[in-house]
Amino acid sequence: MHDAPPRACPCCDSTRAEPWTAYSPDSWEVVRCTSCDLTYLRNPVAYEALETDFAWEKTYEAKKESSKGSTSLSPAIRSLRKKLGLTHRDKQAKFRSWFNDGHVLDIGCGLGGRIRPPMTPYGIELSRELHARADAYMREHGGYCVFGPGAEAIWEFDAGQLDGIVMNSYLEHETEVLKVLRGAHRALKDTGAVYIRVPNFGSVNRRVIGPKWCGFRYPDHVNYFTLSTLRDTCARAGFRTELINRIALPVDDNITVLLHKETS
Ligand SMILES: [Zn+2]
Q1: Residue 158 has pLDDT above 60, yes or no
Q2: Long-range contacts formed by 61-68: CB under 8 A, 24+ apart
Q3: Fewer CB within 10 Å, N or C, the chain?
């Protein structure tokens, strides 16, 4: 992909940008757009490589191969389940109220357990192994999972089909931010909402810790949002941004927001 033209700004489409040399290790080019201020990776890798090179899924496959005949879950899957379980109870209650117990899509859904009944779960997943498991779970509960990249698969849902869309640790990985947000706007009911959680590039920690800050991941993270650049990007797709972690934001390594459709 290093032969491809540099990626334009995912928010404003400008190609004029200043390099963040300190945040650009090896051959990765992290830049700041001089038009809209968004920080992003200018030379991401293609979806196809992400699909086949997901390190932890490879680990899972290797483990499955070495334990043929066993039905036990791999450590990677177990740790993912545990991770989901920790935040699970609090989030379920919030999701249920924000999304009115309705039809809820989880983009980058992994195993698919993030959305539970009485909500109807839908998913999009880029890993074949995880997609198969998520689809089986979701069909049991009235929904389904679409295989593919988020910015493509979101357009397979009907206009106004969904009460809620969850983008948990997803948007920082997505090269086509506006395409997925516009697709979300179309697929969402007027009363629906989008939940987004992304690393907080504006955090005090990023400025203090610098290049070793936990939000940097090369080449997985391709967008580094502050609240301001996230809000601007979402506005271009027709959304109003409501900040959820308002009090803790400056010292929080993540930004949590709800998007609502702008009413004209
Ligand atoms: Zn820009």
Answers
A1: yes
A2: 61/129
A3: C
**What is residue 1's predicted lDDT score, i.e. its pLDDT?**
46
**What does the pLDDT look like over 206-250, one tens digit per residue?**
999 999 999 999 999 999 999 999 999 999 999 999 999 999 999
Tell me the CA distances in angstroms from 98 to 64, 142, 244, one per residue in order: 38, 20, 12
Question: Which pTM value belongs to this model?
Answer: 0.86
For residue 33, the CA-to-ligand 1 centroid distance in Å is 5
Q: Ligand 1 mean position to 157 CA, how many Å?
A: 28
Token pair recorded at residue 99? 């999304």
Q: Return residues with CB closer than 5 A to ligand 1 (ion).
A: 9, 11-12, 14, 33, 35-36, 38
**Per-residue pLDDT band at 75 (split at 50, 70, 90):** low
Measured in Å, residue 15 CA sits from the centre of ligand 1 at: 8
Picking from 233, 201, 195, the residue whose alpha carbon sits closest to that of residue 217 is 201
How far does residue 16's CA lie from ligand 1's centre (Å)?
8
Phi, psi of 208 (to 5 degrees): -80, -45
Q: Which domains does the chain have, with CATH numbers?
A: 17-261 (3.40.50.150)
CA of 13 to the centre of ligand 1 (A): 6
Q: Measuring CA to CA, which residue among 223, 168, 231, 229 is closest to residue 23?
A: 223
How far does residue 65's CA lie from ligand 1's centre (Å)? Answer: 45
Q: Cα dist. 186→105, 122, 182 in Å? A: 13, 16, 6
